[in-house]
UniProtKB/TrEMBL annotation:
GO MF term set: DNA binding
Protein name per its UniProtKB record: HTH CENPB-type domain-containing protein
Subcellular location: Nucleus
Keyword match Nucleus: yes
Domain HTH CENPB-type: residue ranges: 75-141
GO cellular component: nucleus
Keywords for this protein: DNA-binding, Nucleus
HTH psq-type domain sequence ranges: 16-52
Tree of life domain: Eukaryota
Organism in which the protein naturally occurs: Daphnia magna
Signal peptide interval: none
Length: 175
């Protein structure tokens, strides 16, 4: 999977009015795809594709149509995984990238999702999957753990500790 795709061609999008005229001429049978492409200065592939797509309807599709990216986990599963990672961070137990990749692998196995062979071999998700997951879930961020700061040590007081144990009790009751 490519992390950041860079388009290699610099083709400009065809003018919509010219494209409508060319496709209209082809659909009415006035000219062939090749002649319409030559006359209007378009590629025959473009004219042919739009003619085939709009045979009988006379309406052009939007200028840019992209297929959704194929992901290994479904959108609902990724939302669930994302919420779990956030919950761990709230309970003062942040998860590293390696642990996240291992968790994604276990999660996919538990949900009987078809996974790539390199996931099975390494028993964790790939780097590419992690970076794509992070792009899709921009509320998550990768942070390197730091030692406890003076301010955090000073904030270690009774209300904070009680809050921790309340959360711990809720998790134990839930699971």
């Amino acid at each position: 999977m490519v992390r950041n795709y860079v388009k290699k061609t610099s083709h400009e999008r065809p003018n919509e009015e010219i494209l409508k005229k060319a496709v209209g001429d082809v659909l009415r049978g006035v000219m062939t795809i090749r002649k319409a492409a030559q006359q209007y200065g378009l590629t025959k592939t473009t004219v042919g594709r739009y003619s085939k797509l709009h045979h009988g309807c006379g309406i052009l599709a939007p200028q840019r149509v992209t297929a959704p990216a194929k992901t290994i986990l479904s959108e609902e599963m990724e939302i669930e995984l994302c919420s779990y990672l956030k919950r761990c961070a709230l309970l003062n137990h942040g998860i590293t990238t390696i642990q996240t990749r291992q968790l994604a692998y276990i999660f996919a196995l538990a949900n009987e999702v078809s996974i790539p062979s390199n996931w099975k071999k390494n028993e964790k998700a790939s780097h590419d999957w992690l970076y794509a997951f992070m792009k899709r879930n921009s509320t998550l961020s990768i942070r390197k753990p730091e030692p406890t700061s003076q301010a955090r040590a000073a904030a270690f007081n009774k209300p904070v500790v009680m809050s921790f144990y309340d959360k711990l009790l809720r998790v134990k009751v839930k699971y």
